Amino acid sequence: MTSVSPNATAPPAPARGERGTAPAPIRARRSPRLGAARGGRTPWLYLAPALIVLAGLLIYPIYQLGLISTLQYTQAQVSGGEPTSFRGLGNYTDLFSDGQFWRVLVATLAFAAACVVSTLAVGCALAVLLTRVRAVPRIALMLAALGAWATPAVTGSTVWVFLFDPDFGPVDKVLVWLGLDGFADYSWTYDRLSAFALVLFEVVWCSFPLVMVTVYAGIKAIPGEVLEAASLDGASAWRTWRSVMAPILRPILIVVTIQSIIWDFKVFTQIYVMTDGGGIAGQNLVLNVYAYQKAFASSQYGLGSAIGVVMLLILLAVTLGYLRLLRRQGEEL
Amino acid sequence: MKLSARIAVPVAALAVAGLAVTGCAPSTSDNSAKTDEKSGTLRVWLFQEVNNKPKEEVVSAALAAFKKDHPDAKADITYIPVDTRAQKIKAAFNDPKSAPDLIEYGNTDTAGYVKDGGLADLTKEFEAWPDAKDTDPAAKQSVTVGGKVYGAPLFVGVRALYYRTDVFKELDLKPPATLDELTETAKKIHKERPELYGLAVGGAYTYGAMPFIWANGGDIANRAGGEGAYTAAIDSDAAKRGIAAYTALFGDDNCPAAKCAQMGGNDTVQAFASGKAAMAIGGDFNRQAVEDGAAKGKYGIVPLPGVKAGQIAPAFAGGNNIGLLKSSKHRTLAVDLMKSLAGKASQNKLFDAMGFLPTYTDVREDAAKRRPYVAPFVKTLAAGAKFVPATPAWATIDSSLVLPTMFQEVASGRKDVDAASAAAAKKMNAAFSSAG
User: What is the ipTM of this complex?
Assistant: First the structure.
């Protein structure tokens, strides 16, 4: 960004012509002077609209979230039944001393990790498949994926629960017909792992299309000669993916991975709908549903905000950690 | 770190977008009324029922009676959906300017709304009201917090045992006279007719399970000295006997845990109505659902039996109340309208129109004579119904699913009665102490 923005004030023609070929020293020599004279203010001017919007929609809510998380703030304080009081880190100590919070946190991390890995695997595999099939099956697959993508989460979850219903659902019947008698009247939401598995299927089903479409677009942009060379060398599909496509697609994969981490860490609707708000005795709670229970269902807004802050920090840590790891490997985005 | 910073912002944006809903200013609204205007428009929120027409007619009649005495006053009635009532009423507390004067509310919410500072104390008006003398004690308890009255009971809802007369006749069974017999009967039916649940039970059906605890002499919590102070009693020996009795009904010999542990009250009634269960614990308010199902014309209702023959297990006294918001600018007028809506005449009509049980003992007995099917419910109420602890902590306990979690843990075999009830008692005590 810093190397491009001074150019914005330079005469346009040379800048456009130079960009690809001009040796770096010329720009390096010119930009400090410009930066000191005019560039100091100009980039901020361009950034101002975005910054104002971000400040309003992001900084202010985060500030409020942090503020409320230090207050005794329930419905009674909101509607004036009791005065609002400062609790310091009281909400956080309450939260961290709640054994359920830690169990839910661990379950959320494991569940999100499983969802991210599965979504990426399915999405990438189908993207590669798309490039290798004829037009008709490709369009069919595309339409099926877009259909899944366009389905609202609540609708998708309800349909999945019905498909796996022990009394009326077709899935158990098909499994029995295939000879798996153990699935007669099998209740998927009863056992903790099978309930998580059921939700995972739904999450993967509704989030793989984004990965697939994005990666497919990326593959299409790879020069044909590269792939041709790989196939001339006799590389298998896996080998081509591993050594040719994946490295080229790295920026795209980073973006979809981060997006998947964020989405899957924040899963709410699927768990809420499919396991009736957290499963038997709360066995399928994830952090977002837990936060909802605390913050909104029982109106403990202060505690809910503390959970929000913790989630924010975890997501930031995971994402920054992931990016650092990539940088250490010498990759630029 | 340039890269990280560039990513961090959108990352943070996405992360917070979902959580920032709480991010409105931590404001506090002033709910105290400044005036008591004697004319103007009263706003009233009532719950929207599945079939609302008959209710609207009763309300119009009550309004007409009210207007005769107060020609200058107008009333604007809004029917709010039951599903979103919690948000709506919270919003009304937050924004006194657009809040109604009177609201209908579920009686388990009383203590919570009082603590929120939303409801006005009506003790004086209630005591001076002639109709109120015949109010059922359990119903009165449901509008009372810390010795003060916060509204008028509108109707009570109570549960009893529905059973399939055809199945009982075929297997030559009699309606059970004790809770032990109930269990035996349920298991016998499931053995003979494996496609039926003997008694449909639900792990998340708190108000169907509580009678087992109350019948065994246990309770959710006991008063502990001070005003509105409670300690959990769910881990007492008597309560544990009740928990064991209820959770023993989950199993392959009656209602398989894999299916029944996650059921709630409506699911069990639905199972009965659709002919999948030979017995279920349902309310007077569930009768229409059963009438509309496959069980129509093939069922009877008796009070849920107690531990010994001749006893009735205490039922939970559910129901709705009408209360005045603290922010109302028309206190006198609104109280008069409340009396008109929840008075004897209106409750009598409401029973005929909707089947809601009156909260006045004399009106209720009359009603049972007119419609014999409510007799088992009236009998259950007469035997003494119970109520949840009248403390704002109940809202927290209810919404954090303390009791369903306990029943589900035992029913699914994850914990034994001792461990599950001890854990529940611990959570309840934490809620009691933070609310007190």
Answer: 0.73
Residue range(s) defining the domain that contains residue B166: 159-316+392-435
Contact B4 A320 (CB under 8 A): yes
Helices (H), B261-382: 265-273, 287-291, 331-342, 344-354, 361-370, 375-382
Beta strands in A67-192 (DSSP E): 71-72, 85-86
pLDDT, average across residues B318-343: 93
Chain B residues closer than 8 Å to A67 by CB: 26
The confidence band for B29, taking pLDDT boundaries of 50, 70 and 90, is: confident
What fold does the segment set A98-328 form as a domain?
A: MetI-like fold (1.10.3720)
Domain of residue B417, CATH code: 3.40.190.10
Contact residues, chain B, for A61 at CB < 8 Å: 16, 20, 23
Do the Cβ atoms of B117 and A79 come within 8 Å?
A: yes
Taking residue B105's Cβ as centre, other Cβ atoms within 10 Å add up to: 25
Both tokens of residue B239?
């309560």
State how far residue B4 is from chain A, nearest Cα, in angstroms. 6
B15·A78 Cβ contact <8 A:
no
Query: Does residue A17 carry a pLDDT above 60?
Result: no
pLDDT for B241 equals: 96
In 3-state terms, chain A is what percent helix, strand and coil (to 5)?
A: 75, 0, 20
| pLDDT of A182 higher than 60 | yes
pLDDT value for A24: 44
User: Is A27's pLDDT higher than 60?
Assistant: no
- Nearest-Cα distance to chain A for B22, in Å, is 7
